[in-house]
Design brief:
By secondary structure, the chain is an alpha+beta fold. The chain is built from 3 helices and 13 strands; from the N terminus they run αββαβββαββββββββ. 16% of the residues lie in helices and 31% in strands. It is globular. Bound molecules: N-(carboxycarbonyl)-S-(naphthalen-2-ylmethyl)-L-cysteine and fe (iii) ion.
Length: 214
Amino acid sequence: MSDLFAAQVHGTRTRLGRHACVLHGFALPVAAELLAGVEVVSAAAPFRHLVTPGGHAMSVAMTNCGSLGWCSDRRGYRYDPRDPGTCRRWPAMPQAFLRLAADAADAAGFADYRPDACLINRYAPGTRLTLHQDRDESDHVAPIVSVSLGLPATFLFGGFARGDKTVRVPVAHGDVVVWGGVDRMRFHGVLPVRDGMHPLLGAQRINLTFRKAT
Ligand code: MD3
Ligand code: FE
């Protein structure tokens, strides 16, 4: 992305719903700090391909930070204070993560956002996330903040039933999506990530997903 284009997209937003928007380039000024945070977290809690209740390894590699982390295994989905891979507590959320999440939520109209969980998803080219709802949290209104880093992707933004029409939302390095309130339980997914080379991250996409799990 050229600096001129970066300057143009920073500060603009796309409204997706009454309580959902894309803040284009919002995380660009702190992208290097966030990536340093991902390095610290994944050194203590390595990325893993979790197994679904159906027994398939997920193609997205995951780790977490914060007091709770999202986990999947043969028994189901849940939030766990410990990393099942290491049996240790998840690493603390880096300050840069907490600040960015709160600032983005604030910019989208959600004051005093303090997430207790941050799921970190890593996509290799070809990896996708099928249409789903985030329903393992106790509060189905509090916003979720998603930060895209590395290779670009296309989000699918759907309705409240799996079969509802979806719209495609392109997201680039540094984009932040915030959705809460009436839009919180929409179905969503990520189309297969296209092959490419990102100057900071190489051939991968990283997504930070902040939630209030409890
Ligand atoms: C929700 N991860 O981990 S949220 C997840 O890119 C997850 O890895 C996405 O969904 C990822 O559960 C980031 C993408 C998203 C986009 C639009 C939505 C979620 C949405 C619209 C409404 C509700
Ligand atoms: Fe999701």
